[in-house]
């Protein structure tokens, strides 16, 4: 099992990220300069810059030489970066709710190659219907190793799973994604309140920790019919 210890740069990254998503730092506004932040967190400039680079990789901020570090507005965030549905909409004042469709424990089976575990190792398997401002937005179907998340229960599933991973002491590093077009079958059409046969997207995520341990495999089916990304230089 991973050693559950967060580095200084990770702690700074998470604190600044929370300040951005909560609106403490406003879109298009500047963050405090490096001297102020180094003093606040009692770290070297190198450590601080690594944390800010992580924010840049998430699409949360961008820098202008000689002008400082600026907060990107929510519409500039990459929709498929490592932020949960809850995190992506928090700064917009929108409400995200989850309905647990099922929660069970299953053997790893044919997911052994993804998790690098024996076929008999237990996984938590769950599915949720997620609502944005009261309207169905996506359905997820996920697996997580029980040995990493021993206290994961059905109540946990009503919040952000990325935030839950972090509260368990894991630092999420990256996400390998496969995006494919599908058409809605009867089950998905009913959950997303769309017509059967509607073209939509399924995104499969394999989420890794900084130590290259797979924390989650999740398939998300959304009723969004296009993928938007924007970049800031």
From TrEMBL:
List this protein's GO terms for biological process. negative regulation of DNA-templated transcription
The record, for SUPFAM superfamilies, names:
Chorismate lyase-like, Winged helix' DNA-binding domain
Keywords, sorted A to Z: DNA-binding, Transcription, Transcription regulation
Q: Which SMART domains match?
A: HTH_GNTR, UTRA
Q: Which Gene3D superfamilies match?
A: Chorismate lyase-like (3.40.1410.10), Winged helix-like DNA-binding domain superfamily/Winged helix DNA-binding domain (1.10.10.10)
> Can you give the residue ranges of the HTH gntR-type domain?
6-74
- Keyword match Lyase: no
Q: Name one GO molecular function term.
A: DNA binding
Identify the domain of life: Bacteria
Which PANTHER family does the UniProt record give?
MANNOSYL-D-GLYCERATE TRANSPORT/METABOLISM SYSTEM REPRESSOR MNGR-RELATED, MANNOSYL-D-GLYCERATE TRANSPORT_METABOLISM SYSTEM REPRESSOR MNGR-RELATED
Name listed for the protein in its UniProt record: HTH gntR-type domain-containing protein
Native organism = Tractidigestivibacter scatoligenes
